[in-house]
Every structure is written in C-alpha cells, then in structure tokens.
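Quick one, T. Sequence first:
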Amino acid sequence: MSLVRKTSYDTDMPKEKPELSDAMRKKMQGKTFEKNPIKGTKFTIAISSAKGGVGKSTFATNLALALKKNGCKVGLLDADIYGPSIPKMFNINEKPKSDGQTLSPVMKYEIQCMSIGFLADQQTPMIWRGPMVTSAIKTFTQKVSWKNLDFIIVDMPPGTGDTQLTFSQEIKLDGSIIISTPQEIALLDVKRGIKMFDKLGVKILGLVDNMSYFVGEDKKKYNIFGEGGVKKTAEEFQKEFLGEIPIDPEVGKNGDLGKPIVEANPDHEISKIYLNLAMKIKKIYF
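Structure tokens:
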C-alpha cells in the first residue's frame, strides 16, 4: 500500500524539464564587460600590490616622471579614493577646472594629474560605499580630458576590491606592475593580487622588490625585510622580475616635500633605477 496518494497534478506534470529561455540563459552566464580604453591615452599601466605600505605611490610618481624624462607624454591617475597620495607627493593644492561636462587634469612637472584629493580637503575622510567609489573611478577615466598621452600610470589602492574590478573588467589595462617588499606577510597579499589579475586577463609586466635593502654608512647591505622573497614569487608565478629598489632616506624626504626624487635629483642612484625601468617599459610598447 502506497503511503503517498496520487493527485490530479501528477498526471499534468511534464516528464521533460523545460528549456531555459535565451534571456534567462544569458542572465545565468553573468554580465559580459566591454573594456574601453581611457580616451586621450595610448597605454594604461596599473601600479598595484594588494598590500598597503609597500611604496606603490612612491613608485607610481617616480615611474611617471622617469617616463617623461624618457621622452613620453604621461598622465598620473590616483585611483586610491580612500587614501589619495598624489596631492601630497606632487605638492598640488589646486582644484581641476571643469567646463560642466569634463574635468581638466592638473599639470605638474609636465605630468597630467587627477586625484580625488584635488576635490576634497586633505583631512576629509571619504566615507563612501563601493558604488560611489566605482562612480568616481568612472568619472576619472571617462570624464577627464586627458590630452595626447603615451602612458597613463594608475596608482591603485591596496586590496582586490571595487577599484581593481572596475579597472580590470571595464577599462582596457595594457599592463600592470606588482610592487612588494620582501617579507612573507606582504607577499601573501601580493600573491592574491597576481591571481586576481591573471583571472581577469590583465597582463602583468613584472614584479618589483621595493625597499629591498638598506646600505649603511659602512657601505654594507642590510636586508631589513628579508631577502629574495619577491624574486621567488615572480619565479613561482612565472612572471618577470623587474629588479630591486633599495631604501634611501632621500626618497621619503623628497616625497614629503612634494618633489619626487626622479624630478629633484635625476642623477641619484635610485633615480637611475627608475629611468632604466622606464626605458624598458617604453621599449615594450613603442
């Protein structure tokens, strides 16, 4: 004796599963993003890490200046909405001009610059949720009148969140450079960043070992944060290792004064590292 009673609904139920409509199938497959280049620029390069405090902004500003000194027209986009650094590192205190439709980048050291820090007081916290951050990024990439740039260098925020997704999915990134210090705690986040860019189809130009070592007055090399971690990570993920940049007090001093070392002292040993790297990057694209 069956414990389950048949009902009239049993005979009405179709034996075959209904097919999904085309509209429903597309919805389940997820959104397809169209990657658009930033108008007014040929190549967009992101400076990233996924870890804070490893010197991304210092690297981004000095690389932009080094590319300029290698004969390129360069823009610098500060994509760190919560912690903008470019206004301080370039000593920019003016607001960008607007015609009501677009913003004009602020020119400093012959570099076209844009940052949320130009539009708000330096000590005003940006208490924004993800959609507002995404909207700001789209404004800086779509409604800023960048003019005839060879490169735009994007100073990315830490993490693998909204800003990184917006750039990777909706903006044509021509390459990224991963910055890290040698210690394992920094490299844990860096590895996540590498996997994110690989998954989203963004070319990684290579890894840089920043603040790699310190040379004392005795001319000895001191590996304050460890040694070789960034190079090993590059080998692990089959990425190019772009080299080491040592710690030098002059780098921080010039950044605080608003004139990065490549601009303030192009003959400095650190400046030469940036100039050689900029020449290498230029050769990749031109």
